Structure prediction request, 256 residues.
Amino acid sequence: MTPSLRTENLTIRFGGHVAVNGVTCAFRAGELTVIVGPNGAGKTTWFNLVSGQLRPSEGKVFKGDREISGLSPSARAKAGIGRAFQLTNLFPKLSVLENVRLAVQARRGDGPRIFTRAASLTRLRDEAQGYLESARLADVAGYPASALPHGDQRKLEVAMLIAMQPDVFMFDEPTAGMSVDEAPVILDLIASIKKDTSRTILLVEHKMDVVRALADRIVVLHNGELVADGKPDEVMALPQVREIYLGVGADEEEAA
Ligand SMILES: Nc1ncnc2c1ncn2[C@@H]1O[C@H](COP(=O)(O)OP(=O)(O)OP(=O)(O)O)[C@@H](O)[C@H]1O
Prediction:
């Protein structure tokens, strides 16, 4: 089976510093992979290379059989790479419902038009309402996105991403800065995406409880290089991984 996403020898240098160094890996539909590694390991930079915010110094990115290394971020989004950004995708002045409605509309290829015919508007809004309910945002559907607290804005962004239905979902620390009450909603949403086995999910995450709950597979980056890749228990048991990554996780495990 062709992987849904693949990077081949992906490398980027900033001056003399190699932030991502020859990363080759492939991801299948129906699989949630957590990318872990210490601070500065290259996780976000690798994400930026996949979603198009950065261009590689060397190497390639493939979506299915198609090479997408030369495409802009928006062309990659159209090709099915969906990435949640730290709230930069929101339309702050529009209502929560309208934000999701525009995401549904964009997916349907209508473009994100604010004005549209009444009958289709009702259909789009009904669909958007369903996504809001899953994100437990139905009660605030009429509020401007900018009026929501931070945690709700993060949920809204995930709801919009789900409404876009990309083939590949990319989340970079999706619960960072969220309260312990709010984080489970995001994790439930990600778990619900997993139920659709045609999707591929990539998650950068530091929190070991999240990794344990969601990961089918773990990829470990260290100094820009891929140093381990496999089933969570096997990867976490590797002495090399415990040494380089679990400086954080081993303490947490002992504390748990
Ligand atoms: N635009 C840039 N210019 C120069 N150096 C950069 C740039 N972007 C990233 N780096 C460097 O590349 C390395 C990898 O950074 P990156 O943010 O990808 O790490 P990370 O694994 O996501 O870390 P964290 O867990 O702290 O977010 C770091 O040393 C960082 O300082």
